[in-house]
Amino acid sequence: MKLIFHKILCVTAFLSISLSQTGCTKEKAEAVKAAAQNFQVEADKALQRTSLLVKASITTTPQAKEAELRTLVIEIEQKERNPQKLRLTLDGVMDRYKTTRSAGRTIDGEFGKMMNEYAIFADMFENLPRGHLFSKHSVAAAERHGVRLTLRFVKMAEDIDIRPVKFEAQRNQLAVDLVGAKALTDVTQRTQAIQIVAQKALDLRAAERTANEEAILQCLKAAEAGKTATELISNYSRMSVADMVNAVSESLGALNQITGGDNVQIKTLLGKYNSFVDSKIKTDPLWKSVWDTEVNL
Amino acid sequence: MDNDTKMLNEITAKVNTLDIQYKMSSFEDQAVLGPALDELWDDYVKFRIKLLKAGVITTDADLEEMEKIRTQIDAAADRQAMIMAIARTIAFIATKV
Asked: Which of A31, A74, A239, B67 sits at a 20 to 30 Å CA gap from B16?
């Protein structure tokens, strides 16, 4: 009896040792889980920032209440005593800032869906440290998703760089304000009013630039985090624990280096990630397959 | 200029024209123009997001597969916990026999 138990014990110990020797240790599983969670955190930040950027393009700064009240009173005074027309005037003033409701819903919906994808991605590995001995194939199957979700941020950063988001609604408001300023008959008042709008235009230019740059940088941070998570997934059964720790620390170093700066630095960073993608497409069949079938269709 | 940029410029020009007209109108006219402007801003945003996504779309099949992988890893965790428990029990009994 004792002999049988010892045999079973030996077999169990052998199985545990041999499975861990195939590379799927708890530490490595913890590293993959942490990398996937970090990817989700950085992706959330990038999507939040980009969503705010798109929202800013359609948002108009509300007019001062006093000015709005003055215009409303004048319009009502000039109107005939027609309840339908007066009702329309009231509708106009009450629904004035609701002309971007559908667009706002679209932005929240689309970016919300994308955020959910990164949450699902991170969720896959939640129990990996508890099931590391039997999850080698499942982890391998997740690589394709890591590639796709990483590529998205490289492309998103590139798109914002090529076609920066303009704060259209605010630019339109400035044009309207200029029409009003130029209509003033008093020269001093006119010059003053134009100066105020001109200053607002310069401020808007700076705000647009900052918002676009911040979105690009955060997208690249998310791409870096995705690149690391995908690398760990890809090499889950091959990399040693030490190599994985190195990959994570290198990635953290890279993330810390993405801090912004001038346009040249941003272009350099974009170039770095585009080159990474190019080289992966040339050398890794999985990246090529994702690129060919799922990007720029 | 590529086609996407041309298309974006067209949609933007259209919405900007109506937005300026809206902003310069009386409140009565704004009530009439509002719904059309709402629609155009939505078109603009949809196209802008399409460009930002650059064709990287997660399909229902992708989501299902990710869900399946999660279930498999969860099942592996349960299996591993059970095996470890058996191993611990055997080890305990072995020391007593």
From this structure: A74
Domain ranges of chain A: 25-62+97-124+136-164+209-294
Do B50 and B65 reside in the same domain of the chain? no
Tokens, residue A212: 């676009």
- Cα–Cα distance, A98 to A62 (Å, whole number): 11
Token representation of residue A86: 């007066």
Q: What is the ipTM of this complex?
A: 0.87
Q: Are residues B45 and B68 in the same domain?
A: no
Judged by a CB distance cut-off of 8 A, whether residue B8 touches chain A is: yes
HSE-up of residue B95 (Cα within 13 Å, Cβ side)? 5
Out of B24, B37, B42, whose CB is closest to A106? B42
Give the residue numbers spanning the domain of B10.
1-55
Last residue of a domain, one of B21, B38, B55: B55
Into how many domains does chain B fold? 2
Q: Which residues of A touch B16 (CB under 8 A)?
A: 168, 171-172
Tens place of pLDDT per residue across chain A (297 aa):
555 555 555 545 544 544 444 556 888 899 999 999 999 999 999 999 999 999 999 999 888 889 899 999 999 999 989 999 999 999 999 998 889 999 999 999 999 999 999 999 999 999 999 888 888 889 999 999 999 999 999 999 999 999 999 999 999 999 999 999 999 999 999 999 999 999 999 999 999 999 999 999 999 999 999 999 999 999 888 877 788 777 877 888 888 777 766 777 888 889 999 999 999 999 999 999 998 888 765
How many CA atoms does the CB half-sphere of A204 hold within 13 Å?
22
Same domain, B39 and B2: yes
B6 and B47 together in one domain: yes
Q: Tell me the C-alpha distance between B32 and A73, whole Å.
A: 19
Q: Which of residues 147-166 of A touch B (CB under 8 A)?
A: 148-149, 151-152, 155-156, 158-160, 162-163, 165-166
Nearest Cβ partner for B51 among A9, A98, A159? A159
Question: For residue B56, which residues of chain A lie inside 8 Å, CB to CB?
Answer: 148-149, 151-152, 155, 294-295
Kindly tell me the burial class for residue A199, based on how many C-beta atoms sit within 10 Å of its own C-beta (0-12, 13-18, 19 or more): exposed
Whether the Cβ atoms of residue A155 and residue B54 lie closer than 8 Å to each other: yes
